[in-house]
Amino acid sequence: MPALRSSAEAICRDPADAEDLVQETVARTLANLNQFTDDMSLESWMFADLYDSFRRKFDLFTQWF
Questions:
Q1: Is the pTM value of this prediction over 0.70?
Q2: pLDDT tens digit string along 15-28?
Q3: Neighbours of 11 (CB within 10 A)
Q4: Do the Cβ atoms of 45 and 36 come closer than 8 Å?
Q5: Which is it for the CA torsion 13, 16, 61, 24, positive or negative?
Q6: Distance, CA of 36 to CA of 44 (rounded, Å)
């Protein structure tokens, strides 16, 4: 989890938002674990979800319009 947290802090630039983002990512990963297959990388899957969650939650462009 340290790498996931570091990435979240790098893109959020706020420790509290980064912590929320990591928690949401872990919860979503556990909820959708049945979609995970052996040919996938769990780490890559979680990082992709982290970034997608960030874009949905903090994308400034969509908040302006």
A1: yes
A2: 999 999 999 999 99
A3: 15
A4: yes
A5: positive
A6: 11
Place of tokens 């909820």: 31
**How far is 63 from 40, CA to CA, in rounded Å?**
33
Q: Are 54 and 21 in contact (CB under 8 A)?
A: yes
- Asked if residues 18 and 5 have their Cβ atoms less than 8 Å apart, the reply is yes
Amino acid at 26: V
User: From the DSSP assignment, how many helices (H) and strands (E) are in the chain?
Assistant: 4, 0
Are 21 and 12 within 8 A, CB to CB? yes
Interior angle at CA 61, CA 50 and CA 52, nearest 5: 15
Residue 33 amino acid letter = L
- Coil, strand or helix: which one is 49? helix
